[in-house]
Design goal:
Elements: E1 3-7, H1 12-23, E2 27-32, E3 48-50, E4 65-70, H2 84-104, E5 109-115, E6 126-127, H3 138-157, E7 160-166, E8 168-170, H4 177-186, E9 191-194, E10 200-201, E11 203-205, H5 206-218, E12 225-229, E13 235-236, H6 237-244, E14 249-252, E15 263-264, H7 267-273, H8 281-291, H9 293-298, H10 304-315
Helix pairs in contact: 1-5, 2-3
Length: 316
């Protein structure tokens, strides 16, 4: 039985991935400091480490780990300058500690969760993995640095890696845009749209993402490679609202760094990993609503006033 360690294992993606890999026969260990989107996971306490990744070296009893899937990160786009140090600590210093842990524990592979945000303004183009990398906000910048750290550390310490650039991942336990819109509908609140809503995004269901990560773990062709993980399709935010079937909407100020179109070219992952997305957005929305209904009904939403103030502060 292969053993894997997931950092950020109790968050949205980590908890879904943990369940998925256990069903595939992996023994899964989790590390999480519960600072973000904590979810309840039915896992033995001996497999869960409540620690910050900057203290991952304090884990002494883990042996024969075949791979670390590094999901842990500070991920909010709208951050103030006073929070930049936190992002550096979590997304750069934390990654350094994880890579050092890989070397000391003889972990053979690290799977690094990067982001489509490393591309920055894509000028309305469908991007492949060779597209120029010009992030236009701090989160994307830390992910770009992270990619270079992983590549360099691999050369120095002979550790295999795979870099995965996630596009817009959605599904049960998420607090991103699809789940936010569903929660606003279920709680009879106004759905808030930044800008005119014509921005187009590539949405990938978390189950499809988990399938891709599993492929990376079992396929040696993925070693020392970078892949886009998206659906390869895009819809506008306005179209997304229509699919959710709710009419109470309000347009707020657009974020200054918001790009118009984000869409992944995924032919590399299809060819080399023998992977392709299976869940269309309509089915994914229904699945999310069904499996996450109780949480979405009571999840705390940011007020209209708070959202407006947040955008104003970010844009100044």
């Amino acid at each position: 039985m292969k053993k894997v360690l997931i950092t950020g294992g109790c968050g949205f993606i980590g908890s879904n991935l943990s369940d998925y890999l256990r069903r595939k026969g992996f023994k899964v260990y989790l590390i999480d400091n519960f600072s973000n989107n904590k979810t309840d996971i039915p896992i033995k306490k001996s497999l869960l480490y409540k620690k910050d990744i900057n203290k991952i070296n304090q884990i002494k009893n883990l042996k024969n780990i075949s791979a670390i899937i590094h999901l842990a990160a500070s991920a909010d786009i709208l951050i103030s300058k006073k929070n930049e140090n936190k992002y550096y600590k979590d997304n750069i210093s934390g990654l350094q500690e994880v890579l050092r842990f890989c070397s000391e524990k003889n972990v053979k592979k690290v799977v690094f969760a990067s982001s489509a945000s490393v591309y920055g303004d894509t000028k309305n183009k469908k991007v492949n993995e060779n597209f120029s990398l010009k992030p236009n906000h701090y989160y994307g910048y830390t992910k770009l640095i992270g990619e270079k750290m992983v590549e360099t550390y691999s050369k120095i310490n002979n550790i295999n890696y795979t870099i995965l650039r996630f596009f817009n991942i959605y599904g049960p336990k998420s607090n991103a845009v699809v789940s936010t819109f569903l929660a606003q509908k279920l709680q009879n609140k106004i759905i808030t749209i930044f800008g005119n809503g014509e921005q187009r995004r590539d949405f990938l269901h978390v189950d499809d993402l988990c399938g891709a990560i599993w492929k990376v773990l079992v396929n040696k062709k993925s070693n020392k490679k970078t892949y886009n993980l998206g659906s390869g399709k895009s819809i506008s935010i306005n179209e997304l609202v229509k699919k959710i079937s709710y009419s109470k909407t309000k347009n707020l100020m657009k974020r200054n760094d918001d790009i118009e179109i984000s869409i992944a070219q995924i032919s590399k992952a299809k060819k080399e990993l023998n992977w392709k997305p299976k869940i269309e957005i309509e089915k994914g929305i229904k699945k999310t609503l069904t499996l996450d209904f109780k949480r979405l009904k009571k999840v705390k939403l940011i007020s209209l006033k708070e959202q407006t103030n947040l955008i104003k502060k970010f844009n100044t």
